[in-house]
Design goal:
The protein is an alpha/beta fold. The chain contains 5 helices and 11 strands. The protein binds iron/sulfur cluster.
Length: 188
C-alpha cells in the first residue's frame, strides 16, 4: 500500500512517552486557524511512499530500542487505511502506539476506518487546535484537546511528561525541530 507522507522521524522524544518513531501523514481539511503545520494540509503534497518501506524503517528503529510509534499530520484519520497498517505493524513489533488527531474521539468513531484505528491505539490526543486556548504542553496544543488513554499502557503523567520541544541535528548537519511547542530558529 502507498500513502502520502509529510515526514518521518526515526527517533523523537517530543512526540509521546519515551523514544518514538514518528510519521506525519500528509493532508488535512480541518482548517484550524493558527495551525502550526500548514505545509501538511495539501493532500497532494508530501511524498508518496510505499508503506512497506516505512515499516522496514520502523522495524530498524525498534531493533535500536525505541518505545513506540506516533502518528501525526496532517490528519492521520484522513488516510485511515495507511494509519491502520502502520499502527498494526507497530503493535506487531511490540511497540506502543499514539496518534494526534484534529477530530474528537466521538467523530472518529463515526468515520470510515475510525473504530479500527482506535482499536490499535494506546493513546489519542484529540480535538481541533484552537489558538485562543493555546496551551502547548503535555502533548496538547490547546486546552480543549484531550488525552485519551485507550489502554492501560500509559498513565496521564507518562504522557504529560513529554518534552514540549526537541532539536535533532542529523549527520549531515540538518536540523529537525519537533514537539507540541517547536523551537523557532530565526535567520540572522
Ligand atoms: S487538525 Fe491539525 S493539521 Fe489539521 S488544521 Fe488542525 S492543527 Fe492543523
Amino acid at each position: 500500500m502507498r500513502a502520502r507522507i509529510h515526514a518521518v522521524e526515526p527517533r523523537s522524544r517530543a512526540n509521546g512517552p519515551g523514544a518514538r518513531f514518528v510519521v506525519w501523514l500528509q493532508g488535512c481539511t480541518l482548517g484550524c486557524a493558527g495551525c502550526f503545520n500548514p505545509t501538511t494540509h495539501d493532500a497532494a503534497g508530501g511524498t508518496e511512499r510505499e508503506l512497506g518501506d516505512v515499516i522496514a524503517e520502523l522495524g530498524a528503529a525498534a531493533a535500536r530500542g525505541i518505545e513506540g510509534l506516533s502518528l501525526s499530520g496532517g490528519e492521520p484519520l484522513q488516510q485511515p487505511a495507511a494509519a491502520l497498517v502502520l499502527l498494526a505493524a507497530a503493535r506487531g513489533l511490540g511497540l506502543s502506539t499514539l496518534a494526534f488527531s484534529g477530530y474528537a474521539i466521538e467523530e472518529i468513531r463515526g468515520l470510515a476506518g475510525g473504530p479500527e484505528v482506535l482499536a490499535q491505539l494506546d493513546v489519542l490526543i484529540d480535538g481541533r487546535y484552537r489558538s485562543p486556548e493555546r496551551l502547548a504542553t503535555g502533548l496538547r496544543g490547546s486546552a480543549n484537546q484531550r488525552i485519551q488513554l485507550l489502554t492501560a499502557r500509559y498513565t496521564l503523567a507518562d504522557v504529560e511528561a513529554t518534552p514540549v520541544a526537541e532539536i535533532r541535528i542529523g549527520r549531515g548537519g540538518e536540523m529537525v525541530l519537533t514537539g507540541v511547542d517547536p523551537v523557532k530558529i530565526r535567520a540572522r
